[in-house]
Amino acid sequence: MLDLLDLLDLLDLLDLLDLLDLLELRAAATLSSIGSTPTALASIEPLQKADASTDRSFTLNGYTINNRLMDMTRIDETVEAGATGVWTIDNAMPLPHNFHVHAMQFQVLRVGSEPPSVPVRQWISSAPCLWAGSRSRSWNWPTLASS
């Protein structure tokens, strides 16, 4: 049985709580080009497992991470600048959930037992949606990519 907070989360996931418009964009009747779209994105070198110095595990369950209530003012993990490690993220909830890390980017190794889809084979700051009971493994790189 869902409690009220779980129900609100579910409604939010289904976009049924979208009741407020924050921005409306209106284009001019005539527009001019400001440049061209690149034909290719920059290539990204995959990180190497041999460079990983740590393994960390995170379990998402309700409003907790590793059995600790989510708190944006608390720092639970610190990572040495430039270090590489493997983070395993398990979703123990019955609903899908994203995993987002502030001030760093990472590469996804696999989602479940599968390699990541093309859109996440890059530097990202949020793990792909973790479906109920799923697992994601990521290389972390605690500094933002400079190019």
Automatic annotation (TrEMBL):
Domain of life: Bacteria
GO molecular function, one term: copper ion binding
Domain Plastocyanin-like: 56-115
InterPro entries membership: Cu-oxidase_C, Cupredoxin
Protein name: Plastocyanin-like domain-containing protein
